[in-house]
User: What shape does this take?
Amino acid sequence: MERMSLEFIDRVAVLKFNHPEVMNAVGGQMLEDFAEAIAQIKARGSETRCLLLTGEGRGFCAGANLNDDSDKRRKGGAGDGLRNTYHPLMFELRALNMPMVTAVNGAAAGVGMSFAMMGDIVCASRQAYFLQAFARIGLIPDGGATFLLPRLVGWGRAMELSLLAERLPADQAQDWGLVNRVYDDQEALMSGAMEVANRLANGPKSLSLIRKAYWKTWSNSYEQQLELESDLQNEAGQSSDFKEGVSAFLQKRDAQFNGQ
Assistant: This one.
């Protein structure tokens, strides 16, 4: 892959936006490589149990690469391009059968901010910032931003970020609930994010079910969510990880989960 790099470290898939010359702005080749990387991760099955997404160089992802004519998002109507390219990728990320950590090492602007928000745990360096840049070029937030952002930071703050298109520093993003953990620099960020990712990768199968339950809660009624909890609890209760967890608790030892 030319514009994404993928490395498997134990049970963690480390996926990086890899076009640092343009702060990892997204072009057509990057979108194709991103989809290929997700397919490779899924093909490994339970060998890989957490995805860590970050950026190469100084930026996480600076949004769409406006100089890239191969970006199909701008072929025909801009919205049609979203349906054909970004939406399938976002659906794949949402449906991943594993937790996802994002390590925001620099600018997360435009759709790059949308990718950052897809993380179940969002880590950031203190030098990072988030920017809903769309209004600056006469567009609206996309990549699921209008769904995720108000649910993470609240209606008023989401409107402020989107209408005024001002930078949100990492420390303030943590105060607002957009970021889980902030680290002093990029080195500390990657070390800390890998620690989180490894902890998740060595957790029980139920972590993927927890992720599924929380994604559903935004569209389900209370009654539907209770029913989903029952279904997922049945699935978790039939796993070998549940049996191991109970045995470890009774024997007063650390559990050794296998993701099954």
